[in-house]
Amino acid sequence: MSIDRDTAARVAKLARIKVEEDALPALAEEFNNILGFIEQLNEVDVEGVEPMTSVTPQRLKRRVDEVTQGDMPEAVLKNAPDSREGFFAVPKVVE
């Protein structure tokens, strides 16, 4: 797959990234480099390889799932910039 200047402009618009017209060819080339790297990765045989989250074998530390102090909404909301009816109040972001 090859990304041209128009496709790079469309991707930038969808991502809501302002890209100057003269920078679009370089962006398209960067996208092509990324896609080339992905194609390279797709050529690797990973049959029988277990998925991992780190290159070193380790287990994440987990805390005991136990009930702690609760039922104190006043203390939780004490430092909130705005709260209403026992909940955090945030500005509306969707119209």
UniProtKB/TrEMBL annotation:
What Pfam families does this protein's entry cite? GatC
* Broadest EC class assigned to this enzyme: ligase
According to the record, the segments passing through the membrane are none
Which InterPro entries does the record match to this protein?
Asp/Glu-ADT_sf_sub_c, GatC
Q: Which domain of life is it from?
A: Bacteria
Keywords associated with the record: ATP-binding, Ligase, Nucleotide-binding, Protein biosynthesis
Q: Does the keyword DNA damage apply?
A: no
- UniProt catalytic activity: L-glutamyl-tRNA(Gln) + L-glutamine + ATP + H2O = L-glutaminyl-tRNA(Gln) + L-glutamate + ADP + phosphate + H(+); L-aspartyl-tRNA(Asn) + L-glutamine + ATP + H2O = L-asparaginyl-tRNA(Asn) + L-glutamate + ADP + phosphate + 2 H(+)
**EC number(s) stated in the UniProt entry for this protein:** 6.3.5.-
Kindly indicate whether the keyword Cell cycle belongs to this entry: no
Function field: Allows the formation of correctly charged Asn-tRNA(Asn) or Gln-tRNA(Gln) through the transamidation of misacylated Asp-tRNA(Asn) or Glu-tRNA(Gln) in organisms which lack either or both of asparaginyl-tRNA or glutaminyl-tRNA synthetases. The reaction takes place in the presence of glutamine and ATP through an activated phospho-Asp-tRNA(Asn) or phospho-Glu-tRNA(Gln).
Subunit structure, interactors included:
Heterotrimer of A, B and C subunits.
Similarity comment: family membership: Belongs to the GatC family.
What name goes with this protein? Aspartyl/glutamyl-tRNA(Asn/Gln) amidotransferase subunit C
Q: Which organism is it from?
A: Cognatishimia coralii
